[in-house]
Design a protein that fits this description.
The complex is a heterodimer of chains A (about 150) and B (about 170).
Chain A: E1 30-40, E2 43-53, H1 55-72, H2 82-97, H3 126-151
Antiparallel strand pairs in A: 1-2
Helix pairs in contact in A: 1-2, 1-3
Chain B: E1 2-3, H1 7-24, H2 26-32, H3 42-63, E2 66-70, E3 74-79, E4 82-87, E5 91-97, E6 110-115, E7 127-129, E8 132-139, H4 147-158
Antiparallel strand pairs in B: 1-2, 2-3, 3-4, 5-6, 6-8, 7-8
Classes of the chains: A alpha+beta (about 150), B alpha+beta (about 170).
Chain lengths: ~150, ~170
């Protein structure tokens, strides 16, 4: 009589732990926080994403939040905070860029099957294009105004 | 072990309703102090409305039934009129986790039950991962039982389903 070995149960899944990306479960990951700012006349709203992120997911989040600031930050008092938000997010990105490429972690269940696609570089996104246009117009207006003032 | 609410969920609603009343009269209060809202009295009324909505929501939440029982059979969770039984055989993992989007220094306080099956239960899961569903059943900041007491009960009954807690 032959006996068949009992099937080995699959390893129990677990959610991502510290050091594993909260989106895709990959490792290595760093704990970072990215913020964006929406400015509406006299109000401004700050939204943020905190947690453990791998290199790809972190870069995707950085680009998403920075693009959002560049699109929505211009329309109120919050405009003065745009350089601060951009600088702080860029500073925090350094921790993400120092990470090795993400590797899947066996036994970890995550909301995404693979790391996020970082997407287009920031300069090719609507927020950056709008900001370049707005800053150019602003510089031209100020320049023309200064020129007109100087010639009178 | 049974988890019970502490005073915080019961105090939040009334506190917000009192705040709403104060904000309704905030233009008059400021006028009595010789001040006024820079952008007009409507700012006070909008904030009062937000406090009223938050207060009513908090009162409604605190009046809902809440019970969590951790025992040898599993975890029983009651919220409002719904009760969910998590047998230990169904539970992949039970953990005390940080709230979503929490800062690095925040202490874990959310008791979360992770199940691997796709059974429909009376309450919807809070998190859905591939092959895993998470139910956030209690915030231990709002319970009389401390985090250590709950951790001890989970260690006693849950065995290796309760991992070593994150600091």
């Amino acid at each position: 009589m032959t006996t068949t070995p009992a099937p080995v149960p699959p390893p129990a899944l677990r959610p991502p732990a510290d050091g594993e990306c909260q989106f895709c479960g990959s490792h290595p990951a760093a704990h970072v926080s990215f913020q964006s700012m929406t400015s509406i006349v006299i109000l401004y709203v700050v939204s943020s994403q905190r947690g453990w992120m791998c290199r790809n997911c972190g870069l995707a989040m950085f680009r998403h939040y920075t693009n959002k600031t560049l699109l929505a930050g211009w329309w109120g008092v919050g405009v003065i905070g745009i350089p601060i938000f951009l600088g702080v997010d860029r500073f925090r990105l350094r921790r993400i860029l120092r990470l090795a490429p993400p590797q899947p972690t066996p036994g970890v269940a995550a909301s995404l099957p693979a790391p996020l696609d970082p997407g287009k570089p920031l300069i090719q996104r609507p927020g950056a294009i709008l900001s370049i246009v707005l800053v150019t117009v602003l510089v031209l207006v100020i320049g023309c105004g200064a020129l007109a003032f100087a010639t009178t | 072990m049974e988890l019970e609410r502490n005073w915080k969920p019961y105090a939040k609603g009334p506190a917000l309703l009192v705040l709403a009343v104060v904000l309704v009269f905030s233009p008059e209060i400021l006028a009595a102090m010789g001040r006024e809202f820079t952008f007009g009295s409507w700012v006070g009324y909008v904030m009062a409305l937000l406090a009223l909505i938050g207060g009513l929501g908090a009162v409604r939440e605190s009046r809902q039934a809440f019970a969590v029982r951790i025992g040898a059979q599993g975890i029983t969770w009651t919220r409002g009129e719904a009760t969910v039984d998590f047998a230990w055989s169904d539970v992949s993992r039970v953990a005390i986790e940080k709230r979503p989007n929490a800062g690095k220094l925040e202490k874990p306080s959310i008791l979360t039950v992770w199940v691997g099956d796709q059974t429909e239960r009376a309450l919807a899961p809070d998190v859905e991962l591939t092959g895993l569903r998470g139910y956030r059943i209690a915030d231990l900041k709002s319970t009389r039982q401390s985090r250590d007491q709950v951790a001890a009960a989970l260690r006693q009954y849950g065995g290796d389903r309760y991992p070593a807690p994150a600091s």
